[in-house]
Each structure stands twice: as structure tokens, then as C-alpha cells.
């Protein structure tokens, strides 16, 4: 049985029939025990991937984030960008259209196939590589001016060793003065004050809801409901902002600037999302 699926009573057979709305996702008998870095492969099924663009709504998302990422990349002189969490291709396509040289990686083949298709529709050929972040340097070659890991993706790693390994892999792929742009939900606010959302950033589809079904310090189980009554879930590790910054610093990034909903100044509890811009450039005397 899948948690979160409605149970329907079938009177003709006097049998309880569980109708799994998210048929292909597998969370097992006790979903709240599923806290694994590899589980994203089970979660991004063909069905959910097919719905992803309804959830994010490319036009509204482009409008809400404006040129934030393009300006940040330009500010840091980036030309060659590795999108490590390509998903359905939203940022890869935007950056291609803005003139960057982009390689699009993701661990999930369904996502990459959808990204390729989306880019093709817009007249681009995406250079895709299937690669898990923890083995990035094994599967992707070359040096990049920037790595982007966007759309609250890093949160999929449940083991601290996996987070450290991933950041070390990113650090190694960057040029000496390269930059990592990585974002996350404001989990501090959800854990400490409860969930609220402006529904303005990231998940912009107005017919879709994305909300936590369960939260504890080790698991954020989010539920995504679509107008056709289909329901999907994602399991994520609720990264606290200071913790993410600390990991980045410990792996070697010397300067980290964190924006809240794309603004430089904010009250901690206000933003729905944080964006960390981590610079590799060596700064003498930096802590
Ligand atoms: N960046 C896209 C966006 O904003 O729409 C997709 C975000 S989606 C929340 C997270 C993506 O990260 C998925 O495409 C998933 O396959 C990928 N992912 C999760 N864990 C991964 C890992 N360990 N290695 C590579 N990709 C991973």
C-alpha cells in the first residue's frame, strides 16, 4: 500500500481496495522510514516526470525569478555552466537562450529524456549526461565556470557523507575561480514555525498544490496534488540553512552569499527558498 493514497471500499467484493493514486511510486509498507539518498530514482517515475512541468509552470517561473541566475552567472564571469539537477530542463534551456554554454546532467533518465524533449521543442539540442552527483567526476569530464544545483534538489541526499561527497565533487569540477549556485527550501521556517507558502516561486502551477505531509528533523515528506486527482510524493532531508552553508565552507568554498527569495536582505522566516552562491576563488585570510 502507498501512504497518502485513498482507501476505497469496494462493496461488490466486500474487499478493501487501495487505489494507489501515485501508482508507480514505491514507498513500501512504512513510508516514513524511507530516508535514502538513492530513493529519488523511485520517486521521479515516468508518471511524475510527465507532470513536473504542470507543477513548475515554465512561464510563471521565468517571470517570478526574472534574470536572477543569469545575472549572478554573468557577475561571476561564467561562460561554461554545468546544470547538475537538470530535471525537465527549465534552467538549462534558459541559460542556453541567454548565450551560456551548458551541459545538462541528472541522475534520473526519465528527467533527462523529458529535458531533451523540452529543449528540442524550443529549437535546442541539449548536451545531456546521466550522472549521479556522488560520482560526478567519474561521469562528467571537463572544468566548469559554474555549477547550478537548483529547484531544491540537494535536499534529496539523506546521508551527511553523501552531501559532503557531492559538494566535494562539485568543488573539484569547478575552475579555480568558479561558482556553485545551490538552492533549498526554507526548512528552518517550516520546522520551527510551520508551513506557509507564497506560491510565487519554483512551483508556480496554479492548479497544483505542493505541501508537507510529514515533517521531522530527518524527513520532509511533500505531497503534490494535481487537478486530475493524481498525487505524488517526494522525500527530502530538511536542510537547515546554516548547516548547508557550513558544509559548503568545510569543503573549501570561501565565500558564500545567501539570498532569500532572490533578495539580498530578508527576515529569516520570510523566504520560501534560499539561494546560496558559493565561490571557490581563494581569498587570503578568509575564515
Ligand atoms: N532543477 C529542476 C527544477 O528546478 O525543476 C529539477 C529539480 S527536482 C526537485 C530534483 C532533481 O535532482 C531531479 O531531476 C532528480 O533526478 C535529481 N537528483 C536527485 N538526487 C540526485 C543525485 N544523487 N544525483 C543526480 N541527480 C539527482
Task: Characterise the protein shown here.
The protein has 287 residues and is an alpha/beta fold. The protein has a domain at 11-23 and 59-192 and 240-279: Vaccinia Virus protein VP39 (Rossmann fold). 31% of the residues lie in helices and 25% in strands. The protein is built from ten helices and twelve strands. The strands form three sheets. It has a seven-stranded mixed beta sheet with strand order 5-4-3-6-7-12-11, sandwiched between helices. Strand 3, helix 5 (90-97) and strand 4 form a beta-alpha-beta unit. The longest helix is centred in the middle third of the chain and has 14 residues, at 160-173. Mean pLDDT is 88; it is low at 1-22. The protein binds S-adenosylmethionine.
Give the SSE layout.
Layout: E1 7-10, E2 15-18, H1 40-43, H2 46-56, H3 58-65, H4 68-75, E3 80-83, H5 90-97, E4 101-106, H6 109-121, E5 128-130, H7 136-139, E6 144-149, H8 160-173, E7 174-185, H9 187-193, E8 209-216, E9 219-225, E10 231-236, H10 241-251, E11 255-260, E12 273-279
Parallel strand pairs: 3-4, 3-6, 4-5, 6-7
Antiparallel strand pairs: 1-2, 7-12, 8-9, 9-10, 11-12
The chain binds S-adenosylmethionine.
What's this model, at a glance?
The protein has 10 helices and 12 strands. The protein is α/β, with parallel strands linked by helices and 287 residues long.
Order of helices and strands: EEHHHHEHEHEHEHEHEEEHEE
How is the CATH topology of one domain named? Answer: Rossmann fold
The portion of residues forming beta strands comes to: 25-35%
Characterize the quaternary organization of these chains: single chain
Shape: globular
Cα distance spanning the termini:
50 Å
Q: Rg, please?
A: 19 Å
Q: How many H/I helical runs?
A: 10
Task: Name the strands of the widest sheet in spatial order.
Answer: 5-4-3-6-7-12-11
Mean pLDDT: 88
Amino acid at each position: 500500500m502507498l501512504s497518502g493514497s485513498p482507501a476505497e471500499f469496494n462493496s461488490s467484493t466486500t474487499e478493501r481496495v487501495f487505489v494507489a493514486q501515485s501508482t508507480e511510486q514505491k514507498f513500501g509498507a512504512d513510508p516514513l522510514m524511507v530516508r535514502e539518498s538513492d530513493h529519488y530514482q523511485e520517486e521521479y517515475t515516468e508518471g511524475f516526470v510527465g507532470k513536473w512541468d504542470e507543477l513548475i509552470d515554465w512561464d510563471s517561473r521565468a517571470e517570478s525569478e526574472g534574470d536572477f541566475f543569469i545575472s549572478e552567472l554573468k557577475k561571476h564571469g561564467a561562460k561554461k555552466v554545468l546544470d547538475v539537477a537538470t530535471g525537465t530542463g527549465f534552467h538549462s534551456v534558459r541559460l542556453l537562450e541567454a548565450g551560456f554554454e551548458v551541459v545538462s546532467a541528472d541522475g534520473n533518465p526519465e528527467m533527462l529524456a523529458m529535458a531533451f524533449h523540452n529543449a528540442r521543442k524550443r529549437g535546442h539540442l541539449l548536451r545531456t549526461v546521466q550522472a549521479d552527483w556522488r560520482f560526478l567526476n567519474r561521469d562528467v569530464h571537463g572544468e566548469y565556470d559554474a555549477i547550478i544545483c537548483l529547484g531544491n534538489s540537494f535536499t534529496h541526499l539523506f546521508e551527511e557523507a553523501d552531501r559532503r561527497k557531492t559538494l566535494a565533487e562539485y568543488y573539484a569540477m569547478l575552475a579555480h575561480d568558479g561558482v556553485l549556485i545551490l538552492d533549498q527550501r526554507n526548512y528552518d521556517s517550516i520546522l520551527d514555525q510551520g508551513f506557509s507558502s507564497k506560491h510565487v516561486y519554483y512551483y508556480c502551477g496554479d492548479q497544483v498544490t505542493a505541501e508537507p505531509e510529514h515533517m521531522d528533523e530527518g524527513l520532509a515528506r511533500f505531497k503534490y496534488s494535481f487537478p486530475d486527482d493524481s498525487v505524488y510524493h517526494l522525500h527530502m532531508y530538511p536542510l537547515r540553512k546554516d548547516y548547508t552553508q557550513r558544509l559548503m565552507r568545510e569543503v573549501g568554498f570561501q565565500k558564500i552569499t545567501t539570498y532569500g527569495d532572490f533578495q539580498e536582505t530578508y527576515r529569516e522566516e520570510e523566504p520560501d527558498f534560499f539561494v546560496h552562491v558559493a565561490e571557490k576563488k581563494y581569498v587570503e585570510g578568509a575564515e
